[in-house]
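Holo prediction — N-hydroxy-L-asparagine.
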Amino acid sequence: MLNRRKFITLTAASAYLTTLTDKVLAKTKEPLKSPLPVVISTWDFGVAANQGAWSILKKGGRALDAVEAGARIPEADMKNHSVGRAGYPDRDGHVTLDACIMDEQGNCGSVAAMENIAHPISVARLVMEKTPHVMLAGDGATQFAVENGFKNEKLLTPESEKAWKEWLKTAKYEPTINSENKDYKLGNKYNHDTIGMLALDAKGNISGACTTSGMAWKLHGRVGDSPIIGAGLYVDNEVGGATSTGVGEEVIRNVGSFLVVELMRQGHSPQEACEAAVKRIIKKKPEIAKKIQVGFLAINKKGEYGAYAIQEGFSYAVCNAEKQDLLIKGESFYK
Ligand code: SD4
């Protein structure tokens, strides 16, 4: 059984957003809803990523083009150490990237543990459009990207290398994600992880994208949930879409994003569906769940959206014709 949905709390990074918070709090139990087109994405850096998607959506463009353009923003951001080119490496010093994309017709493409290519989301789209496959991994993914004109380049930045060498001093393998929760402040742009993005275009079609460098200092070859269709991302044009962030292993075990979409199919709101999926993870492994973060973000075909996480500190960004830089604090199980 789903618990009664709790009050949606919004926190704002600026005075403007604080005013907005009061307005949204007044609505309480109504699902948050956006006019179409709309794009939503995980974490504070979703605000900037949404701009990339919005430049396409506002002109009547396709959701698929929008999510690819949006995901490329954090992938290119040199200050972002959890997505794309400046991502932190694995424990052996390799930057290995995971990404997937899915459109309104159920087409999907993905790359996993790919090295030396700065925009995995665009390679994932090419896998979807140019091959009979869904997923390419490791060297094969890099080879495919290079054959299709992507630049083969070293991704490890001096800053990431320095952080890795610092980690090597203790080499303590504790893949804690979102460990900054204690100090979390909304509006602090660069402290978070995977970008998951969902867009509904003016025609009401949905697409999604998910891209990450995964856990810093992971074992070489480790693949998280982000490139796995159904785990890190799932969209269904009859229902809506969902994406996840946090410790991918727990999301994979529960096929998280697919679960959220199926719960919406059964009539639950995006908020309720995200909450139920998080609680499933907690119920299965309560001891592990105490120490990790997992968050889901979802939207349905009506433009209703919601999010829920295990730990405090999850945020998501919403962008539509009314407002392009809305940042919302997601609800969480642990406060
Ligand atoms: C992973 N889910 O590789 C990703 C990482 C992440 O918030 O989302 N962090 O497991």
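READOUT: The domain at 32-334 is CATH 3.60.20.30 (Glutamine Phosphoribosylpyrophosphate, subunit 1, domain 1).
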